[in-house]
Amino acid sequence: SSDMHVIEAADGHEALAHCAADLPDIIVVDYGLPDIDTIELIRRIAAMPAPKRPQILICAIEFDVGLIMRAKRAGAQGYIHKPFDRNQLLGSFREMSAAA
């Protein structure tokens, strides 16, 4: 089933507040956050105490191997290229579930 509850954050600090209140199963992080370094945001989310680690997916306009490697070291599991549609996003979620 692809039923999911989606919460959107305007920036990194709002995302951290959402995660601190109720850590999601899957988090899609935009590379171009206006207020916090993306890698730092991933690190901070990955360090939050939780019974189950969230799956973190980074999205960016350009395919940047260095960025993807830094994001993975910080705690991200995957990458998706922007723009993406619902089917591509759900496919990425399925790939992460299969790898978990």
Q: Mind explaining what this structure looks like?
A:
By secondary structure, this protein is of the alpha/beta class. It is 43% helix and 15% strand. The protein is built from 4 helices and 3 strands; from the N terminus they run αβαβαβα. It has a 3-stranded parallel β-sheet with strand order 1-2-3, sandwiched between helices. Helix 3 links the parallel strand 2 and strand 3. Helix 1 runs parallel beside helix 2 and helix 2 runs parallel beside helix 3. The two termini are 18 Å apart. The mean pLDDT is 91.
Strand order of the largest sheet: 1-2-3
Main sheet record = 3 strands, parallel
* Helix proportion: 40-55%
Strand content: 15-25%
Give a quick precis of the structure.
The protein is built from 4 helices and 3 strands, in the order H-E-H-E-H-E-H. By secondary structure, it is α/β, with parallel strands linked by helices.
Question: What characteristics describe this protein?
Answer:
single chain, 100 residues, alpha/beta, 3-stranded parallel beta sheet
Set out the fold topology.
Layout lengths: L11 H10 L4 E5 L7 H9 L8 E6 L4 H10 L3 E4 L4 H14 L1
Parallel strand pairs: 1-2, 2-3
